[in-house]
Amino acid sequence: MSSNVHGVKKVKTNEELAQARKQKEAVKIKEYNDLVSRCKEEVEAKHFEFSTLRLTSDILQLNPDYYTIWNYRREILLQGIFPTMDEEAKQQVLQQELEFFMQLIRINPKSYSMWNHRRWCLSVMSKPDWQQEFKLVGKMLDLDARNFHGWSYRRNVVANIREQQLDTKEIDTKEFEYTSTKIKQSFSNYSAWHYRSKVLPSILKDMTDEERTAVGKKELDLIKNALYTEPDDQSAWLYYWWLVGRVPSHVQIVGAYSVSKTQFLFVVFDDEVQLAGDIAVQDEQNNKVNGSCYFQPPTMPSPLHSWMMKHWQFSFSNWIQVA
Amino acid sequence: MATEPPKTDKLEVDLHVKYIQSLNTKKDDLEYWLTEHLRLQGIYWGITALDLMKHVDALPREEVIKYVCDCQHESGGFGGHIGHDPHIQNTLPAIQVLATLNALDAIDADKVVKYVASLQNEDGSFQGDQWGEVDTRFCYIALSICSLLKRLDDINVKKCVEWIVKCRNYDGGFGNQPGGESHSAQIFTCVNALAIAGALHHVDRDLLGWWLCERQLKNGGLNGRPEKLEDVCYSWWVLSSLATIDRMDWINPEKLTEFILSAQDLEDGGISDRPGDMVDVFHTHFGIAGLALLKYDGLRSIDPVYCMPQHVIDSLGLPRLHQHNDKMESGV
């Protein structure tokens, strides 16, 4: 959804003001609609040239969420402009696309269309500069430390940098330290805690037990600091819960009953259970008996206390144990 | 000085019906033209809200059906408006509107399913269109379309589930891609995609329920992520996820109802993101859908998985993948 419907205050108006605004808008509407129809005509006529590209720029400056126009832009580049160019010139045009993004992203930093276009540009560049992207996304997250698109793009940039490196330790450490910086700026930065949970496992991967313990103690210190500063904030609590590990609760079987002279069994649990797929049971001689759940996706109901199974071999007399 | 907006403790159905009817007459607003790419989705938001308020006839049925059909491309996908490029995000609302109007036979379902299947990637995820954006939103959309058309066998549901599970986080929530931060709207798409796939066992109900119910703020409204502002649309994303995992009683329904009602425009109708802001059909729909989940008096019940009136899902012969409305009458 376009973000222009969020946080816009309703302004009191009267008939006179509304009339004046409408007159002003009528001019803009005409200009805008003329631009759109000219652009569509050019694209339909397959005039994939710089002049058509400029028309898309003019429209996108007024309406950066118009996804079809972004599609036109890529078609124009791919079909009309790139084929006439060498790699260097192509790189230059794509660099201009990245600059165009910088102009527009100020209008709506949460525009899916724009972030997609940037990703696409990098994907067709012969020499993408990921370090430049790394700096850019750092700046974006300085402006808004919670921007969902910013964090998403950061993961994309880091993944590309990781791909180019044999030893990923440096980039992983850098990212881990980045989350420390962001968390220390604000203990409520949930995005940074989240990202930390994704980076921490790769940091620990090649460590000795002593090194791991040291990291663990440092994590607990950080969490303690956060909890003292922001005791009502959920961020550090959830991270803490995850770090120390949660105690899994085990579900018990109350009993299993076979229906006389049929292939059906009822298995009863002490809690609601959703079955992951086919199920196997053991008969009295400890032989594995394969079967399937009577309900199949998508008709499988929500978790239930008891389940009916259909088994291929019919050999039960009374109690059985679920494997 | 800002003046306090007038208050009401009831849903102003007549005003909202009029507001939705007025949307197609605002051609002298620049905004009307700038939001053209959202028109088909807007019709879904409008029709669904109207049906929940028992006024589906307030929009001209035949005209709507024709418009929806005109948005379809040869590929089978739908554009956001006539002449706009096809995208999976516009294909679901097309199917939803036609289903609600009992007019699914107006389109060629084969073509639609083929289009959706063509967007599935090797790893099970879905892209939004030929340009390759990948997001858990599109998994939900693909599963929802195929389920509504009873063609789930035409896509690889198992692989899709495997990919969605990769997007699960330590807080029990889900992000837009593997590694992405939990966000209520993405949680809606993942939880309900898993519900359609019969794979809700991948959800840790208590952990996720905790995270979701913490989204309620002191003023009763819900936010989408920790430390963010409340917003009426999360009345849907959060609440429907809680309904699907059977944890809706973990939030305070009276305070949420009060918050949604306080975001109504009592002069011109419609509901906004927060009290005093400009209304739009997106928030109007999700506010009313939230109230329907809360069993607000006079509204029809809604299916939390499909975000469509329960009677529509029931009459399509689809199973209820949740227990939310089971104690209710059919809602018609």
TrEMBL record, chain A:
<dbReference type="Pfam" id="PF01239">
    <property type="entry name" value="PPTA"/>
</dbReference>
<protein>
    <recommendedName>
        <fullName>Geranylgeranyl transferase type-2 subunit alpha</fullName>
        <ecNumber>2.5.1.60</ecNumber>
    </recommendedName>
</protein>
<comment type="function">
    <text>Catalyzes the transfer of a geranyl-geranyl moiety from geranyl-geranyl pyrophosphate to cysteines occuring in specific C-terminal amino acid sequences.</text>
</comment>
<keyword id="KW-0677">Repeat</keyword>
<dbReference type="GO" id="GO:0097354">
    <property type="term" value="P:prenylation"/>
</dbReference>
<dbReference type="GO" id="GO:0005968">
    <property type="term" value="C:Rab-protein geranylgeranyltransferase complex"/>
</dbReference>
<comment type="similarity">
    <text>Belongs to the protein prenyltransferase subunit alpha family.</text>
</comment>
<dbReference type="GO" id="GO:0004663">
    <property type="term" value="F:Rab geranylgeranyltransferase activity"/>
</dbReference>
<keyword id="KW-0637">Prenyltransferase</keyword>
<keyword id="KW-0808">Transferase</keyword>
<dbReference type="InterPro" id="IPR002088">
    <property type="entry name" value="Prenyl_trans_a"/>
</dbReference>
TrEMBL record, chain B:
<protein>
    <recommendedName>
        <fullName>Geranylgeranyl transferase type-2 subunit beta</fullName>
        <ecNumber>2.5.1.60</ecNumber>
    </recommendedName>
</protein>
<dbReference type="InterPro" id="IPR001330">
    <property type="entry name" value="Prenyltrans"/>
</dbReference>
<keyword id="KW-0862">Zinc</keyword>
<dbReference type="GO" id="GO:0046872">
    <property type="term" value="F:metal ion binding"/>
</dbReference>
<comment type="similarity">
    <text>Belongs to the protein prenyltransferase subunit beta family.</text>
</comment>
<keyword id="KW-0637">Prenyltransferase</keyword>
<dbReference type="InterPro" id="IPR026873">
    <property type="entry name" value="Ptb1"/>
</dbReference>
<comment type="function">
    <text>Catalyzes the transfer of a geranylgeranyl moiety from geranylgeranyl diphosphate to both cysteines of proteins with the C-terminal sequence -XXCC, -XCXC and -CCXX.</text>
</comment>
<keyword id="KW-0677">Repeat</keyword>
<dbReference type="InterPro" id="IPR008930">
    <property type="entry name" value="Terpenoid_cyclase/PrenylTrfase"/>
</dbReference>
<keyword id="KW-0808">Transferase</keyword>
<dbReference type="Pfam" id="PF00432">
    <property type="entry name" value="Prenyltrans"/>
</dbReference>
<feature type="domain" description="Prenyltransferase alpha-alpha toroid">
    <location>
        <begin position="11"/>
        <end position="308"/>
    </location>
</feature>
<dbReference type="GO" id="GO:0004663">
    <property type="term" value="F:Rab geranylgeranyltransferase activity"/>
</dbReference>
<keyword id="KW-0479">Metal-binding</keyword>
<dbReference type="GO" id="GO:0005968">
    <property type="term" value="C:Rab-protein geranylgeranyltransferase complex"/>
</dbReference>
<dbReference type="InterPro" id="IPR045089">
    <property type="entry name" value="PGGT1B-like"/>
</dbReference>
